Amino acid sequence: MVIVDNATAVENVRRMGTRSGCDVDTEKKEDGTFHIHLSKKGEKAPNGTTEKFPVEPADFSCTTVGPLVVVISSDRMGRGDDELGHVLMRSFIHTLLTLEPLPETLIFYNTGVKLTVKGSEVIDDLKEIEASGVSILVCGTCLNYFGISGDLACGIVSNMYDITSSMAAAGRLVIP
Amino acid sequence: MTDQEVYHVVLFNSVHHALRSEKILKEMGISHKLIPVPRHISSDCGVCLRFTADLRSLIEEALTGKVEIREIRPM
């Protein structure tokens, strides 16, 4: 059982549990806390106990649990030469299509959002990635900052809550 | 597979030549795509220009004498 004090944490734990193959039950308590019960699918809690299943300490390790998430924080790959960095980023996005399995989520923020709008040289690749079932989250604040909100051509406009929780829930985070 | 779906690539000895070629093709409105050199062609970290086979002669004509090309070949 996990005890947390806010709804966002509930969602984060729920997501982690679900992805780890657990059933997740949440109880809201009068003191404002949430008690989250995680149980392996198909296993019932022993009668008369509050814990639904005995958990070995190692089961709490989530270093390899969770999806692959790729974060594109710039329209350049690496630091140094901008022109070269842009070529490398275009190659990186194109090559993502060859990954098996594909990432669960791509997150774009800062100048990375420029890759997701009309006229971007990688927009066809991104549309193909999205059509393959990959979730593409694009930072709305960043689109607004660059004045390109109306030009979004793939993915969904997202917010820092979704971006942060997706990154926190990732088993592996790739940031080129 | 139609002729439109058969891709060829232009290979270069330098990424600068690839970028110069891309600029030329963009200015001429010739459809193409800058991609990493496919693994089965070379294990080097490089980029090349991919295009549909039907554009081969047009692209050869556009780049010949303007940019140093290593090879044009099917993907």
Can you characterise this structure?
The complex is a heterodimer of chains A (176) and B (75). Chain A has helices at 7-19, 82-96, 123-131, 140-145, 160-168; strands at residues 2-4, 22-28, 34-40, 68-72, 105-108, 135-139, 156-158, 172-174. With 176 residues, chain A is α/β, with parallel strands linked by helices. In chain A, the strands form 2 sheets. In chain A, strands 7-6-5-4-8 form a 5-stranded parallel beta sheet. Chain A has a 3-stranded antiparallel beta sheet with strand order 1-3-2, with helices on one face. Chain A folds into 2 domains: 1-59, no CATH class; 68-174, Hypothetical Protein Ychn, Chain: A (3-Layer(aba) Sandwich). Chain A contains 5 helices and 8 strands. Chain B is of the alpha+beta class and 75 residues long. Helices cover 29% and strands 25% of the residues of chain B. Chain B has helices at 15-28, 56-63; strands at 7-11, 33-36, 47-52, 71-74. Chain B has a 4-stranded antiparallel beta sheet, covered by helices on one side. The two termini of chain B are 14 Å apart. In chain B, 20% of the residues are buried. The mean pLDDT of chain B is 90. The A-B interface holds A 83-84, 87, 90-91, 94-95, 121, 124 and B 15, 18-19, 33-36, 47.
What radius of gyration of chain A results from the CA coordinates?
20 Å
Structural class of chain A: alpha/beta
Class derived from helix and strand content of chain B? alpha+beta
Separation, N- and C-terminal Cα atoms of chain A: 36 Å
For this entry, what is the oligomeric state of its chains? Answer: heterodimer
Number of strands of chain B: 4
Strand order of the largest sheet of chain B: 2-3-1-4
The CATH fourth-level homologous superfamily of the largest domain in chain A? DsrEFH-like
Give the helix level of chain A as a range of percent: 25-40%
Major interchain interface with per-chain residue totals: A-B, 9 and 8 residues
Order of SSEs of chain A, N→C?
Answer: EHEEEHEHEHEHE
Percent of residues in β-strands of chain B: 25-35%
Average pLDDT level of chain B: 90
